[in-house]
Amino acid sequence: MEKRVFNFSPGPAMLPLPALEEAQRDLLALPGTGMSILEISHRSAKFLEIIEGAESNLRKLLGIPEDYHVLFLQGGARLQFAMVAMNLLHGTGRSADYILTGTWAKTAMNEAKSQGGIRVAWDGTSLNYTRMPRQEELHLDPNAVYLHMTSNETIQGIQFSTEPDPGQVPLVCDASSDFLCRPLDIRKYGILYACAQKNAGPAGVTIVIIRKDLAERSPADLPSMLSYKVLAEAKSLHNTPPCFCVYMVKLVTDWLLQTVGGLEKMEALNRQKAALLYEAIDRCGGFYQGHAAPESRSMMNVTFRLPTAELESAFLQEAKKRDLVELKGHRSVGGCRASIYNAMPLEGVQRLRDCMLEFYEKHSR
Asked: For residue 17, what is the enclosing H or E element?
């Protein structure tokens, strides 16, 4: 068997080993079917059992009430950037508020601009997206169609510690980078969406949790594949869904429920992992320069720079020798980035922490 490394990629990211092992066992033939998950019909009783199981798991983990739909869609978060505006904003003659916290928030806003008026409720550009806004810094329109937030900026490594208060306006959240990393109160959100390839499964499926009354707002003239109302009425089966990806979401959420023990325990482990790396950054007296302000540090994406580009290159090479890979930062920020999503084991983070401290001792003199 090929040796597995510790993959710190921002996505597609590591998947839980028990989920991968179960998928491996069932790949040739799902029990009782004689067919692979890659071959069975999305209309079959077996696949209906899988997709209903994945939804049930998500409802248990997040406490999703019955007045919310859980949809399994395609197109990633990028398609949701447009779909949210197409379904809620288009044709209303009103505007939507966007909190600009980093690369993905800005991308979401730019996609929405084609569908109606956009207001910027807060802009972190001048701060180089090093922190999240405080509630009193938000300039909110009480008549906005919705308020859009990005809960965790993958590239900059910053994360909201609590949700902003939108007042009476529906809160829409791109939670792609921290979905299922901690408990949250779904009732605070009108729509919460996440591409799966960080914490929930492989690339190819996007999970959308939407309040039922908001789904009913979908304009009748939308193409059916872009209408929340149509997709919800079809229970995510309006077309052939990404069956294997939904199956993997089922296995990952099984792992969260049965092995981890729920999101409270997952959060505790995630905080432990993040603390190891931030403590190493802080201990090394500026040798590692964190991008995020301490109060906005992400549990999922730890971003930092070294004193020179040469040292960064040497650090990445040293890390690779220790089976610590995909640590190079995004080109727009540079430096290094350790994405420590749910499936990254504590051992991998401990090994990276040790690498950082030993590299500092060797090169700081």
From this structure: helix 17-26
